[in-house]
Amino acid sequence: MNTSAIFRALCAAAFATACALPAHADSASSVASSAGSASSGSISDSIGASSDSSSGDRRVAAGEYRVIDIAQAPAKANTTRMTLRATAAGPAREFYLDVPNRALAARAVNTGELVQVNERVYGYEFAHAADKQPFFLALQDAWYVELRSQQVAI
After folding, report:
1. Are 62 and 71 in contact (CB under 8 A)?
2. For a Cys-Cys bond, which of 23, 38, 57, 143 suits 134, CB 3.0-4.6 Å?
């Protein structure tokens, strides 16, 4: 085997390795793929304090929540507002979640159903509690800006 053939083989191996690396990435680029078909939005645009909430803050804790109300989100076209109440014992934690209708197209969430909220490094994952299938990601604003689609002119 001559030097040229060895060099070509090494280049091909390096190329194959470089192509395989992104598939194993554990970073922001894998956020959307880890949630399957889940939609995403920013925390500031998606989560708010319920009118029944005494504290008025936007904090959400990981855990199981019951959907107590579903309605069209005010002043947001094609968006559903879910009011969620924690099922855990203790002081009632309640907040609303605005979800694009496209996130619920394949599988709706109904009043009375349970939603699992998981805190992630990038924000919150909202999933159907029955099978843990995510339907929406509420991303920290900085992450949302970084992952947002940008129009490119060519």
Report:
1. no
2. 38
Q: Which domain holds residue 22?
A: 1-33
pTM above 0.85, yes or no: no
Q: Tokens in use for 38?
A: 């889940």
Q: Which residue has the tokens 């939609």?
A: 39
Domain count, the chain: 2
154, 143 contact by CB (below 8 A): no
Report if residue 41 sits inside a domain.
yes
From residue 140, alpha-carbon distances to 16, 31, 44, 125, 145 in Å are 34, 12, 8, 11, 9
At residue 71, the 3 state secondary structure works out as strand
